[in-house]
Design brief:
The complex is a heterodimer of chains A (244) and B (196).
Chain A (H helix, E strand, L loop, with lengths): L18 E2 L2 E2 L4 H22 L7 H21 L7 H18 L11 H23 L17 H13 L1 H34 L1 H37 L4
Antiparallel strand pairs in A: 1-2
Helix pairs in contact in A: 1-2, 1-3, 2-3, 2-7, 3-7, 4-6, 4-7, 6-7
Chain B lengths: L1 H21 L13 H134 L5 H20 L2
Classes of the chains: A mainly alpha (244), B mainly alpha (196).
């Protein structure tokens, strides 16, 4: 392995170069892990929903617990109106979670550690939520930027701040996930490098750090998927139930 | 239209970032736009496929499973409740049957006892009567014997005394005088012998 801790994020072509017009859509290691994640999700949830027994087996229990977990998360944050978007948020949560978790296996590639992937997801969510908001409330959706009970003097400032915060949503959403993933994996790589360079004498301390970091990173992998999904729910809630 | 412009702006901004980072080689591979289009393409393809399969095929099945389990559990609870009520009424019936049979047995026992007592009483009456008869008969006999006894004794005493006197004196003694003496004696000593 290369000593450079950033080389784990390298994207390289697997197989031939595929070009459509000016665009290169070659199959890469990133594509491979996207496919692995989605196929495992589909496999697990298909196995978990095929047989309906009163006493569920382990995989069925897993599928049903995930279902109720996401379902409860959505109804808690966005209310019953968000029901039609359940499948999307479920897919989103599972995709991010599985990509994060597969990234925890050594020598794998973390799909979500790339800003372009998280940004496309976040931008899609941002655009989707904005479109839903305008469809549901028409131009009344712009009231989101005008909080009630604010003195008229402060209103221009507040509106500007609200608009900036609204527009920064996709950036904060995507950068949060990407930066967490990248930072965690880089840190683990750096500590792994310390183990090698300090050798059998001094390598134990960074090794124990590495073990602790692995636990932490698994927690972060879950937490970031959860945060990503729950923020999507909160944005959706703004669009569906205009609170301001 | 708005979305398109927005996307163009995003791409433009990323190309600008790329220009900024291109100077330092070995920087963040994330900011190398070489495979951005490929990543976007594969992301849309895989995520889209997964979303379609999950939303159209798998999630409805899971929700269906959960619903059917819920309803089945409710049904089972209802059935169990019904069965419990049934068994309770059965238990009550059973208790009643036991109570009824107990009273029946009691009355039968009482009847039998009464009958037995009646029988016993009847038999005892008959026996008592028989015994009484026997006793009275015996008493009559005894009375007759007792009545006859002094006469016979008197006669024996008279005969014996006359013969005794004849042997002793050798002369005929008048029987009537002897019987008068015996009568007198027996009247005097009668109480001593008979206890009357």
């Amino acid at each position: 392995m290369a000593a450079n801790p950033m080389s784990q994020f390298d994207v390289y072509r697997i197989g031939p170069e595929i070009k459509v017009g000016a665009f290169d859509i070659s199959f890469t290691n990133a594509s491979l892990f996207m496919i692995i994640s989605t196929v495992s999700i589909l496999l697990i949830f298909n196995l978990g929903s095929n047989k309906n027994s009163i006493l569920p087996n382990k995989i069925q229990l897993l599928a049903e617990l995930s279902y109720t977990f996401v379902s409860k998360m959505i109804s808690d944050t966005a209310g019953s109106k968000a029901k039609p978007y359940f499948a999307f948020i479920f897919s989103l949560f599972m995709f991010v979670l599985f990509c994060n978790m597969f990234g925890m296996i050594p020598y794998t590639f973390t799909v979500t550690s790339h800003i372009i992937v998280t940004f496309v997801l976040a931008a899609f969510i941002f655009i989707g939520v904005t479109v839903i908001g305008f469809i549901k409330h028409g131009f009344g959706y712009l009231k989101l930027f005008v909080p009630s009970g604010v003195p008229a003097v402060l209103l221009p400032l507040i509106v500007v701040i609200e608009i900036i915060s609204y527009l920064s949503r996709p950036i904060s959403l995507s950068v949060r996930l990407f930066a967490n993933m990248m930072a965690g994996h880089t840190m683990m790589k750096v500590f792994g490098g310390f183990v090698i360079s300090l050798g059998i004498v001094g390598g134990w301390l960074p090794l124990s750090f590495s073990v602790a970091l692995t636990g932490l990173e698994i927690l972060v992998a879950f937490l970031q998927a959860y945060v990503f999904a729950i923020l999507t729910c909160i944005y959706l809630n703004d669009a569906l139930n205009l609170h301001h | 239209m708005f979305n398109k412009i927005y996307l163009h702006l995003i791409f433009l901004s990323f190309f600008l970032i790329k220009e900024a980072f291109a100077a330092e080689s070995g920087g963040m591979p994330q900011l190398n736009p070489e495979f951005w289009v490929s990543q976007i393409f594969w992301l849309v393809l895989t995520f889209g496929t997964m979303y379609l399969v999950l939303s159209k095929l798998i999630l409805p099945k899971i929700s269906n499973n959960l619903e059917s389990r819920k309803s089945q559990i409710l049904e089972n609870i209802e059935a169990a409740e019904k069965q419990r009520e049934d068994s309770e009424t059965k238990l009550k019936e059973y208790d009643q049957i036991i109570l009824r049979s107990k009273t029946e047995a009691n009355s039968m026992f009482n009847q039998a006892r009464e009958k037995a007592i009646k029988d016993i009483n009847a038999k005892r009456d008959v026996l008592d009567k028989q015994i009484d008869d026997e006793i009275s008969k015996a008493e009559e006999e005894i009375q007759a014997l007792r009545d006859n006894a002094p006469d016979k004794i008197n006669k024996i005493a008279i005969d014996t005394s006359s013969e005794l006197l004849q042997k002793l004196i050798g002369a005929e003694v008048n029987n009537s005088s002897i019987s008068a003496i015996v009568d007198d004696l027996s009247r005097r000593n009668g109480d001593k012998y008979y206890g009357n």
